[in-house]
């Protein structure tokens, strides 16, 4: 980087720091306390608080819900270096993301790469503005880790496809406005061929959802059913029967997104949370040597994941990213998050098992611990991720 470029980036940092200090409400500099405290956008979206609305609208108007997207699609048009600075400055004050969205994390990148001009202009600005909430139609009852075995079919009917079938584990399908969906458009083709990637409105006739109750007591996942759903062929992203290319590219971004749960983000350090239950010794250290060691190892691994995530972003921006690297990140991040909650449960002792009491805030800790068990399944199981790493990155014989 030249001196001029360095000076410009430092100027951007100072301006960004000042803008964030002036515009991020104090309430938005604290971790979200529940899923209801996260703004997902959508046609029927409601803000949980006035500060949440203010923060979202200010960031949206700045283009910083999607800082690195082109301005013509509602983004901020920031360079890779500027985006990195913005992330660092938001982390410095503990600022929450103004908008959580599968459209941002998964569909948006796929549309930027594979979408035609009309699809980009139609969908990307609405994603950036939080106007449409998306869900993902990938997994099926008999096509989970072996996703290419999917059987939801789309039959040609003039300018439309008629879609029939079922998806499962569709996150927040009961709240979503639109779905990005994998369908089989050529049943005679090989397994990975004959699949198309298509977009359609969840209010279309023939679409229905049914929430799935989890052991945690929550229902973030749904069964989704399609009964003669008519969708224009113009809604296919990329080429008909070549949807697997789009699907694989999107999965890279999904797995990178899921891996982020392994990072601390803006929450309190694990040692501080554990000290609430265990207490400290005369030297101010956590009063449990074994737990102290577990947390120290966790903190080192957490820092390594954060550094690895930054490296992944830099490699992607330089066009040098390995397409399978997101699988390694997904494995490491989800297994790390499971470790985090195992430690939290150990630190809480018997009190951590409270399920429904005022003190435990309706069993927040054990419910979150149970939820983490799905981390190493959703988006591709840990076993599948390790297989991809062995085959695509390590090139191990027989993988």
TrEMBL record:
Task: Describe the family membership recorded for this protein in Swiss-Prot or TrEMBL.
Answer: Belongs to the acyl-CoA dehydrogenase family.
**Entry's InterPro entries?**
Acyl-CoA_Oxase/DH_mid-dom, Acyl-CoA_Oxase/DH_mid-dom_sf, AcylCo_DH-like_C, AcylCo_DH/oxidase_C, AcylCoA_DH/ox_N, AcylCoA_DH/ox_N_sf, AcylCoA_DH/oxidase_NM_dom_sf, Mycobact_Acyl-CoA_DH
What are the entry keywords? FAD, Flavoprotein, Oxidoreductase
Q: Which residues form the Acyl-CoA dehydrogenase/oxidase C-terminal domain?
A: 241-394
> From which source organism is this entry?
Bradyrhizobium vignae
Is-annotated flag, keyword Cytoplasm?
Answer: no
Q: Where is the Acyl-CoA oxidase/dehydrogenase middle domain?
A: 135-229
Q: Which cofactor does it need?
A: FAD
Instruction: Tell me the ranges covered by the Acyl-CoA dehydrogenase/oxidase N-terminal domain, including all copies.
Output: 7-131
Specify the domain of life of the species encoding this protein.
Bacteria
Protein's recorded name: Acyl-CoA dehydrogenase family protein
């Amino acid at each position: 980087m030249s001196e001029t470029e360095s000076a410009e980036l430092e100027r951007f940092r100072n301006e960004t720091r000042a803008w964030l200090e002036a515009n991020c409400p104090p309430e938005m500099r604290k971790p979200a306390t529940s899923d209801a405290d996260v703004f997902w956008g959508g046609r029927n979206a409601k803000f949980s608080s006035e500060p949440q609305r203010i923060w979202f609208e200010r960031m949206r108007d700045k283009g910083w819900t999607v800082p690195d997207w082109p301005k013509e699609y509602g983004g901020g048009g920031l360079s890779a270096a500027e985006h990195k600075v913005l992330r660092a400055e938001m982390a410095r004050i503990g600022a929450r993301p103004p908008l959580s969205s599968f459209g941002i994390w998964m569909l948006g990148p796929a549309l930027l790469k594979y979408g035609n001009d009309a699809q980009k202009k139609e969908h990307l600005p609405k994603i950036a503005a939080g106007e449409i909430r998306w869900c993902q139609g990938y997994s099926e009852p008999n096509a989970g880790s072996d996703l290419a075995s999917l059987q939801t079919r789309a039959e040609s009917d003039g300018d439309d496809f008629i879609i029939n079938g079922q998806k499962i584990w569709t996150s927040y399908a009961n709240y979503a406005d639109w779905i990005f969906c994998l369908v089989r458009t050529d049943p005679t083709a090989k397994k990975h061929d004959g699949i198309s990637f298509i977009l359609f409105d969840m209010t279309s006739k023939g679409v229905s959802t049914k929430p799935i109750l989890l052991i945690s007591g929550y229902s973030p996942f749904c069964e989704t059913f399609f009964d003669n759903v008519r969708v224009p062929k113009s809604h296919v992203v990329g080429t008909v029967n070549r949807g697997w290319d789009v699907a694989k590219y999107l999965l890279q971004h999904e797995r990178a997104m899921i891996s982020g749960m392994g990072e601390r983000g803006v929450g309190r350090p694990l040692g501080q949370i554990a000290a609430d239950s265990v207490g400290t010794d005369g030297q101010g250290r956590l009063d449990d040597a074994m737990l102290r060691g577990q947390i120290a190892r966790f903190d080192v691994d957490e820092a390594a994941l954060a550094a690895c995530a930054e490296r992944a972003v830099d490699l992607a921006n330089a066009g040098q990213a390995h397409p399978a690297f997101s699988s390694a990140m997904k494995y490491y991040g989800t297994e790390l998050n499971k470790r985090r909650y195992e430690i939290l449960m150990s630190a809480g002792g018997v009190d951590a098992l409270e399920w429904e009491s005022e003190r435990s805030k309706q069993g927040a800790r054990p419910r979150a611990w149970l939820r983490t068990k799905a981390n190493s399944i959703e988006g591709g199981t840990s076993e599948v991720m390790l297989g991809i790493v062995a085959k695509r990155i390590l090139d191990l014989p027989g993988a």
